[in-house]
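May I ask for whichever protein you like with its backbone structure tokens?
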Amino acid sequence: MSAEGIRAIVDFKNVNTDRVHVTLYPPTFTTDEILYVMPASIPGTYAKMDFGYFIKNFKATDKSGGYIPVRRLNDNEFLIIGGNRLAKIEYDVNDTYDDTTHTLDVFNPGGTNIQQDTNIMFGAHGFLGYFSGNQHVPYTLECIKPSYFYMATSLDKQQVNDTLDILKAKNYDALVDNPAMLSRPDTISYMQGATKITIAVYSTGGKVTAEMVAKVIKPVTKTVESFLGMMPVDRYTFLFYFVGQDRKDLRRKEAYGALEHNYSSMYFLPETSDQGMLKSWIAQTAVHEFLHILVPLNLHSKEIARFDFREPKMSRHLWLYEGVTEYFSVLSRAQSGDLNEKEFRRTIRQKIFGSMFMMPKPVAMTELSKNVLLPEYQKMYGVVYEKGALLGMFLDITLREQSGGKITLLSLIRELTKKFGPDRPFEDTVLFNEIEAVAGKDIRPFLNTYFDSATDIPYADMFAKIGWKFVEEDSIQGFAFSGIRARMMDSALKLQVRKDDNTLGAKQGDIIISINGTEVNPNDEEESESLVSLINDPESEEEVSISVKRGEDILTLKGTPKMTMKQEKSVILEFPDATEKQKALLQHLLKH
């Protein structure tokens, strides 16, 4: 194959039955058989999704327009027999958002959307593939679009006229790493330090605007800059898709969340006009996604750097990429004052509950990471945001303690990034050796014990280092709905009721549909755990409204938790007799 690049025409203007037409002009091939590959998965996701499933009517032609035989080997692979005559490939693309036929769930922030005349979510991995062995060749995309569409992306873009944008990427990896959103323009840009931040919003019911989102994002970017001490990228784009309650076709999977990229992140979130609710949904998620510019985007193993789109290989260090990033997202907010110490403790406590909730049996984090695509481990994937974050915190505390404050988890990652960086990946099996080389041999037992084995975390000992007291179970004064607990049972969130005359008027077996207007998503364990805490562990006497299904009826239950003595598990308290050394370590942690 020559050094030529790939030219593709993607027609977003003439959408036919919810399908986009793609025309691809390949480089010159000298071999008879060539393989065109669509991704089975993409970086930042940890599940198989088979984007080739959404490719229809695939055909290949020579210079005279004659058809070249194509054999579809599986969902993702198209074997072209006569590659040395190949002049053009054409096919149609279905989107993933409203698909009901695919047996695999495509995570919406990594998916594609085709809504004629209103919105296109263009993750290139859902529209374009690569020729096997040739991920490195450059791509030029001619994107035909309605004149009223604006394309928001961090990729190199040339606006030729109001119906044609040209995108250029140095290779397939860069193309996939830079998604785009097309819709009627609703964008805001501003400078955070030397970084241009762009926010683009599409809201199905028009309830959310870029101006509303910017009020939440601006403190986020300020928090990240303060935490890192700098902004490591010159540009960053936040792409937001908000879906309304009425769009049952799009809300079917309730796959809310976000996906990180080097210069952008893509969000799929429920629509609301409530600014407070917007903040609660966006702030923590956006900090997390933005902080991925540290790991894995600037520090990663070869499995990440040389991503195998055809047969993805997972790294042993998902705890680093997701768990440490999640810890940093909480720590940065605590350091900025967005979370006070009590809120910080509460967030950490919720992660202990989440860890127990999501991991039914002990598994080493490195084992879970390496095998996360397997069904048995896929069920536990969410624990990397819980136990992974807790282990990140305890690694940070241990590093600070052992080094007398000279080494922190953030400084460790910075040192490792100097040696490796985005274009110099590390060997997956030697990361602990590299950490030891920076932090000293005393850190190795911690890594072996808590990351490379399934040893339980000694919470009491770890929290004691920073003057916090951990109690497995205690009788404390606090707010509660007496006689009521919310539990996940049989893939539904149900109320367990011990007293029929309870505050909420709940009945045994009531199925919870929503809490305070937020729908319960049984498939999102992290979000469900947060909602459950409003019933099982309320923080104030604020009224809670719960929509439940009771038999064939849909009812709204409202009640106010009361102050009472209650039995609580995994309690984290400020220890009044903390030593000066313990207090100093906590202050060192919270004051950056």
